[in-house]
Batch of 2 targets.
Target 1
Amino acid sequence: MTIRNTANRFTGRTALVTGAGSGIGRTTALAFAAEGAHVVVAGRRREPLDETVRLIEAQGGKALAVTADVARAADVQALVDAAVDRFGSLDVAVNNAGVFRGGEPLAELSEDDWHTQLDINVTGVFLALQAEIRQMRTQPAGGAIVNIASTFGVHSRHPGAAAYAATKAAVSVLTRGAALDHIRDGVRINAVSPGATDTPMSLDAGETEADRAERVRAELPLGRISATDEVAAAVLYLASDAAASMVGTDLVVDSGATA
Ligand SMILES: NC(=O)c1ccc[n+]([C@@H]2O[C@H](COP(=O)([O-])OP(=O)(O)OC[C@H]3O[C@@H](n4cnc5c(N)ncnc54)[C@H](OP(=O)(O)O)[C@@H]3O)[C@@H](O)[C@H]2O)c1
């Protein structure tokens, strides 16, 4: 038996993170860079991506910012091409970009909000998977993909989130099917389902961070939401060689909400 040294698990590898200009995506990008990966950070807005690159370079890492809308196939293909052109391979991809629209009962949700969530949360993950798998299966070492779903999908229930939950359930199920289709191509695909995590997305309408802390003290078994680095730790584990036999799983990080 060999016990792996888990420091610098990604030295010399290229990791792509979508939605890396903020929140869980930025922390995940920083975590990959801290363990030696060359990181490609993507999102629609340039400035937040440049800031993520600056933070990575400040800790001695290498990163490339690429603006891309994951709902557009041409953008996603150009993103994968840019990663390979710059760093030579695509070893890890984290499909994290996502949006929440809702709060109101389903009958009041606008058709625009429905389509926006489907386009980004579901079609965006589908298009990214296709471009990433097509690259990774050409590489001798294959690759690992982690999709960011949510406990709101298949794991739990929340009023005012029916459409968002449907998109995140789709991410969990798409993960499982894609994993089965492509593990023999050397591409290992899993998901992480965060519960409430420390970004503005977990604030209820009109709520401050202090209000949220008070609410979750009673609501969550742990008494607090997850930090973004706690979600990133699960992502890095699934992307690492230590998780070689994790295929199509959906790892929940939720302060005990679904325990
Ligand atoms: N925070 C939570 O409590 C929680 C819980 C469960 C799951 N999640 C999931 O975790 C992921 C990250 O969320 P977060 O909380 O970190 O929120 P966030 O800070 O709003 O991050 C979302 C990121 O996705 C990017 N993005 C949105 N639409 C995009 C598109 N069409 N193409 C490319 N990038 C796009 C955004 O940048 P641009 O606007 O510049 O594109 C943004 O940087 C999401 O998938 C979310 O559903 C979050």
Target 2
Amino acid sequence: MNFELTKEQEMTRKMVRDFAENVIQPRAIDLDVKAEFPEDIFKEMGKLGLLGIPFPEEYGGVGGDTITYALAVEEIGRVCGGTGLSYAAAVSLGSSPIYYFGTEDQKQEYLVPLAKGEGLASFGLTEPNAGSDAGGTQTRAKLEGDEYVINGEKSWITNAGYARSITVTAVSGKREDGKNIISAFIVPADTPGLTINSNYDKMGVRASNTCEIILEDVRVPKENILGDPEKGFGQFLYTLDGGRISIAALAVGIAQASLDRALAYAKERKQFGKTISNFQAIQFKLADMAMEVELARNMVMKAAWLKDQGKPFTKESAYAKLFASETAFRSANQAIQIHGGYGYMREYEVERYLRDAKLLEIGEGTSEIQRLVIARQLGC
Ligand SMILES: Cc1cc2nc3c(=O)[nH]c(=O)nc-3n(C[C@H](O)[C@H](O)[C@H](O)COP(=O)(O)OP(=O)(O)OC[C@H]3O[C@@H](n4cnc5c(N)ncnc54)[C@H](O)[C@@H]3O)c2cc1C
């Protein structure tokens, strides 16, 4: 076994860390307060090739692997959970399904500009009445001549307000056994009948753009169906497996930031004539945080490695997502505790880490759903 990163992976990590610390970190508090999506930062990230890390050069990407991409998500998440979430969603949910399942024409038209960082894409699966039970989708797509006509509603779709295209799932027919066939469709964001509202007032990840989408007689050419029309459900399960690695990486970033801040503060803050890092109660908190961050990162790297090797990774990505998101929440909570009253104040940032970390236990499959995925993989 080899736990060392390659030279390229190390270089990308350093480059993203520099960018995150110099460009994103100084604005993180402000983006959170104003709930502002940093469009300009995404343009810069595009120029650096970050939006194309896991895609081949022939499709506008930089030909990196999942490990490199996970390292980039961690570094961005370390300074701003909201920017990290939008970055992870853009690559894993927006672009990746087109790369995995798109036709050559779809890749040229939609993936190439995304990988080059010339725009963002979204993935619209969740609906007001279909969340964890994504198979219960109520959006409908009907073939009329050479076009599909789509009607329905999607909730909490990341980046949709800034997207060039949105891949939406919809029921397109019935199987012989009476079950719904769910297909995925690429819908350009300027298609008539598509309304995108971004009015949510969120607890955390406030720099991330989150939208409600209404589809009223939205017409797309039948060529816009993504991949196998009969296998839309399986396709989005695969997409979510990959996305979970990036959510887990984002969680590691927040957990690491919590540890870094708590450790630095514990070494400075004096009570009872000594720094609080001298108290064993504080040391034990820091020791547990450090151990859990290390474990979570190893799980992310293993899931990413399995994906890169073309091996099954469903169980490992669920392990990583579940453990890392719960680690991030615990670490952020302990970081606030170690900061005492200062930790409750916005300027110390650890309270934001907690608010941002909470989303990671919900999005891309709640913790309960991760446990279900793992149990199924165990044969339950
Ligand atoms: C900021 C944000 C960004 C998001 N971005 C996107 C996006 O880009 N694209 C997208 O499609 N969706 C997105 N989502 C939606 C997200 O994936 C869902 O919120 C999530 O899957 C949970 O669905 P739900 O909210 O409907 O909860 P529900 O499914 O209603 O769950 C409610 C509770 O019941 C539990 N529960 C449900 N079923 C079971 C079960 N079988 N066993 C045990 N417990 C169960 C859940 O774990 C949860 O605790 C986003 C959400 C947020 C908040």
